[in-house]
Amino acid sequence: MLQVLFENAEKITEKPVFTSIWDIIEFGKNNLYYYLTLLSDTKGKQYALLLVVSLVISTFLLKNLFNYLALNHLMHLKNGVLKDIRNKMYNKIISLPISFYSEKEKVILWLEC
Question: What is the model's pTM?
Answer without folding.
Answer: 0.59
